[in-house]
């Protein structure tokens, strides 16, 4: 089981990533990336009241944490701060689709390398 990446917890850390970083949007989430930090990869999770009540927001954050743990667990690139922002669809979206959204956002941001294509067997 991959370990959890370290977390962003303070408001000023989230604001720094938001103001200086790049942004990638997908239907299930928004990814903000700030490169050039000296620390190992750190991830923060947030949702707004626009997506629903506390139960819905907590569910969205739990799903984002699990998706990040799966995709970033052991092969996490160092030197980045990430913020994952939940959207309306995050809490109800099929989990495989949510993983695909995160994978696509990470690839677009340049954090995940494309999977190698296997050689065809003659």
Question: Care to describe what's here?
Answer:
The protein has 122 residues and is α+β, with helices and mostly antiparallel strands. It has a single domain (11-108), classed as 2-Layer Sandwich (Ribosomal Protein S5, domain 2), CATH 3.30.230. 35% of the residues lie in helices and 20% in strands. It has helices at residues 11-20, 54-72, 95-108; strands at 22-26, 29-35, 42-46, 80-86. Strands 1-2-4-3 form a 4-stranded mixed beta sheet, with helices on both faces. Helix 2 packs across helix 3 (95-108). One of its GO terms (cellular component) is ribonuclease P complex. It holds the Pfam family Ribonuclease_P. Consists of a catalytic RNA component (M1 or rnpB) and a protein subunit. This is Ribonuclease P protein component.
How do the strands and helices of this protein lay out in sequence?
Blueprint: H1 11-20, E1 22-26, E2 29-35, E3 42-46, H2 54-72, E4 80-86, H3 95-108
Parallel strand pairs: 3-4
Antiparallel strand pairs: 1-2, 2-4
Helix pairs in contact: 2-3
């Amino acid at each position: 089981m991959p370990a959890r990446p370290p977390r962003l917890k303070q408001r000023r850390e989230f604001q720094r990533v938001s103001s200086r970083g790049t942004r990638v949007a997908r239907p299930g989430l928004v990814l903000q990336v700030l490169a050039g930090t000296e620390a190992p990869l750190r991830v923060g999770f947030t949702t707004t009241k626009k997506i629903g009540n506390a139960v819905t927001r907590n569910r969205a954050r739990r799903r984002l944490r699990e998706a990040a743990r799966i995709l970033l667990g052991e092969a996490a690139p160092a030197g980045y701060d990430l913020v994952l922002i939940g959207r309306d669809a995050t809490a109800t979206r099929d989990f495989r689709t949510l993983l695909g959204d995160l994978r696509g956002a990470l690839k677009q941001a340049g954090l995940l390398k494309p999977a190698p294509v296997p050689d065809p067997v003659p």
